[in-house]
Protein: Methyltransferase domain-containing protein
Organism: Thermococcus aciditolerans
Amino acid sequence: MNTSKTASKYDRFSKVYDLFESPMERRAFSKYRARALSLAEGKVLEIGVGTGKNFPYYPQNVDVIGIDFSRGMLEKAERRRRELGLKNVKLLLMDAQNLEFEDEGFDTIVSTFVFCTVPDPIRGLKEAYRVLKPGGRAIFLEHMKSESRLLNIPLYLMDPVMRTLTGTSTIRETQRNIEIAGFRIEHVENLFFDIVRLIIATKPLGG
């Protein structure tokens, strides 16, 4: 599926996105976000900002640029930014696979539940690697294929439905893709079995 088709799906889905995810957000995702975003420092690029669900969890002393390829999602994010009175957050319409930033411009990269949807995830991850400063930190909160065959059964069953609705895959090997893109993984925390993982990675000095 190409980027424009996926973006169009999210433009339509943006109207009910927060409502659709609200049960998971209340029970688990909000805690996961708080844990992940507490690690952000300096100049931050959030890839796939969506409706701005991460905004309440950022430390006050960071400057955030949030990008998304869906205008509908960005409109929701801008509304949330204004409601929270955040002056340190800027939003841009942009494709994760073609970041319009110079090399090595960010101290922290943030991605939460995004690289299950980017049409070419390795290309997107390589772009994230490119714009991260050497020694910088990348924070990935992502769901992905499990190491357990048993746990993968429902993921494989859900995958065709999710691909049709949102372009999202439930069976991507995102941790492996992060390494392929060049990142050095420093820490992996399994949050819901190993289907939802918090992955902290760095760009090696000289990388």
